[in-house]
Write a structure and sequence with these properties.
The complex is a heterodimer of chains A (about 425) and B (about 150). With about 425 residues, chain A is mainly beta. Chain A contains five helices and 16 strands. In chain A, strand 10 and strand 11 form a beta hairpin. In chain B, the strands form three sheets. Chain B has a four-stranded mixed beta sheet with strand order 1-3-4-5, with no helix packed on it. A four-stranded antiparallel beta sheet of chain B has the order 6-7-8-9, with no helix packed on it. In chain B, strands 2-11-10 form a three-stranded antiparallel beta sheet, with no helix packed on it. The chains are: A mainly beta (about 425), B alpha+beta (about 150).
Chain lengths: ~425, ~150
């Protein structure tokens, strides 16, 4: 493991001269000139000097963000909900030509009050970016590794449906951010990019039955660095296709050796490893787009972690989806429809959060799910979306052995259900 | 269930890395042999007085070139649009300044997912401004690109 740290250190040393060198070939003129995004212009017009952060004319601060609100009707339970799902404020700052800061502050579910289970306020990302050249850079801090499609590109204007894909919510827990160091590069002459990152590992003690890997994420909050993970991705852009393979391998035991020994379990950087492999392809041409993704998670030591934490962790999980979409306005020649989109889409998702379980696990049929989502996205401009869809879900049967203290009267578990979703979203 | 100890994990991890490396190598070789992938030749150049010169002969075979200027923060995508007409785009996302990735059909920002056409028009947000065009001029057998201050775009 020391080798990995040494490699990162040497890489940093090798390039530090490039990174910290100041290249100021070009003279600076009016810092509030044309070419600013609407958000930047808005701030510029207020007379504030936020655009430069008061730190010199070669610096630049960018303010942007995204958000989403939704309505959902659960047809079987006849329950209706509205929620301000998230509002995210992005602040980026270019210190010089080689070093930049990226931060995203997120409020989920509108509000946070002490002592009550309501929303969350958290940093979605906060990292420094050190550029070696235009095609290679290193990030350090809290960032989102390149795994799957939605994890990295999760703006509501860039995915179809009010809800993010279920596979990329439960099997790939988007948004999955951890603290670490990542190296990103593009080949010079071919449309291929790759990334590799070293991040803190998952915490098996945080896994919860039925939520996949979500509870095990560190998300930058006092996460254990007693275990770590390596993740990597390779992308190829061929004509109108984008291909990706990505992988994750990391330990899931956050305990110190002393703690682990006292609990008679394993410890170490890669103890009780969890492996994730993913591949996806996206196609986009004219008004038509399509995507397909498959992901498999293997957790060989699930039995030992179940013994330790009693969280009914599965030994393997999988998920896959295919989606096709068409922008109806694309074929309209009328200028009235210019820069507007009306996207009709259909997505089929299949996932199983307990594809296989260890000998001490309990199978839960409700985690074996199929989803069909049909809907529309209307984008009056590129940065605003109004969405509506219907999601049909079919699951396996409920396992009554998992009902520890069942109420005397309860609604029978519906294996078939449907949801109606309406949402609005924006990004700027 | 058979347990995997750390030694086995490292061995398997190394094998996986080797396999992945071999996959990338083979895939890259395959892609290199494929003429229709939208690949771009990289030209390295130096600026003199804020200008970069490229021989026009560079566009005889491939109509699109990626130009990397020493000391300049972003690559420049240069394209011969038609006989004698050239387009130079600054490969900087107009949303948050991320360097763009050349795809087969345009440009893509990995940071927030913005997409641009080969001529720099926004296809997908959150970017709302087109890519910056850099002034170009044909002088004899050279294409001269005037560099702009990338921090202002």
């Amino acid at each position: 493991m020391k080798g990995i740290f040494i490699c990162f250190f040497l890489t940093l040393c090798l390039f530090q001269e490039n990174v910290f060198a100041q290249n100021t070939d070009y003279s600076n003129t009016d810092k509030h000139s044309a070419g600013l995004t609407p958000a930047q212009k808005l701030i510029a017009e207020t007379g504030e000097d936020l655009l430069t952060g008061n730190s010199g004319a070669s610096s630049q601060t960018v303010l942007s963000g995204y958000g989403q609100a939704s309505f959902q009707r659960n047809n079987q339970y006849q329950d209706n909900r509205v929620n301000l799902d998230r509002v995210v404020l992005f602040v980026g700052h270019q210190f010089n030509k080689k070093i930049a800061l990226f931060t995203e502050l997120e409020v989920e579910d509108a509000k946070v009050e002490g002592g009550k289970f309501l929303g969350t306020v958290g940093m979605e990302q906060a990292y420094l970016k050190f550029s070696f050249n235009p095609r290679q850079y290193l990030v350090a801090g809290l960032f989102i590794p390149r795994i799957g499609i939605t994890n990295e590109n999760h703006l509501p204007i860039n995915y179809n449906g009010v809800e993010r894909p279920m596979v990329e919510t439960f099997i790939i827990p988007s948004t999955w951010r951890e603290i670490g160091v990542g190296f990103y590069s593009q080949l010079s002459t071919l449309p291929i990019s790759y990334s590799i990152a070293l991040v803190n590992g998952l915490n098996a003690g945080g896994f919860e039955h039925g939520t996949g890997l979500q509870g095990g994420r560190g998300e930058g909050q006092m996460a254990s660095a007693n275990n770590i993970a390596v993740t990597a991705a390779v992308n190829a852009y061929v004509q109108d296709f984008r291909f990706q393979i990505s992988g994750y391998a990391g330990g899931t035991v956050p305990l110190t050796k002393y703690q682990a020994d006292s609990l008679r379990t394993v410890s170490g950087l890669f103890a009780a490893p969890l492996y994730l492999g993913e591949a996806d392809v996206q196609y986009d041409k004219g008004g038509f787009s399509a995507k397909a993704l498959g992901v498999y998670v293997s957790y060989p030591d699930a039995d030992e972690m179940n013994t330790l934490y009693a969280d009914n962790s599965p030994q393997s999980m999988y998920g896959a989806y295919v989606e096709a979409a068409y922008d109806i306005f694309h074929s309209f020649k009328n200028p009235m429809f210019e820069n507007k989109k009306l996207i009709a889409f259909a997505r089929y998702e299949r996932l199983n959060m307990n594809a296989s379980i260890p000998s001490n696990g309990i199978i839960d049929g409700t985690l074996d799910q199929s989803h069909v989502i049909l809907g529309f996205n209307f984008l009056p401009i590129n940065n605003v979306t109004i969405k509506a869809d219907v999601r049909l879900i079919h699951t396996g049967p409920e396992n009554k052995a998992l009902l520890i203290n069942p109420p005397p009267v309860m609604f029978p578990y519906p294996q078939n259900n449907s949801f109606v979703n309406i949402g609005i979203g924006y990004s700027f | 269930m058979q347990k995997m100890d750390r030694r086995d994990f490292l061995k398997n991890g190394c094998k996986a890395c080797l396999l992945m490396g071999a996959g990338v190598f083979i895939g890259t070789s395959f892609l290199e042999s494929c003429a229709s992938i939208g690949s771009m030749a990289l030209l390295k150049a130096k600026s003199i007085g804020g200008k970069v010169s490229i021989p026009l002969s560079e566009f005889a075979v491939q109509k699109t070139k990626l130009v990397r200027v020493s000391g300049y923060e972003y690559d420049i995508a240069v394209r011969e649009v038609s006989e004698g007409n050239y387009l130079a785009l600054l490969m900087k996302c107009t949303h948050a300044g991320q360097p763009l990735t050349k795809t087969g059909a345009g440009f893509y920002c990995t940071l927030h997912g913005s997409r641009f056409t080969p001529t720099g028009i926004v296809e997908n947000g959150p970017a709302s401004q087109p890519l910056a065009h850099m002034p170009v001029a044909v002088e004899g057998q050279q294409l001269v690109i005037t560099l702009i201050d990338a921090s202002k775009v």
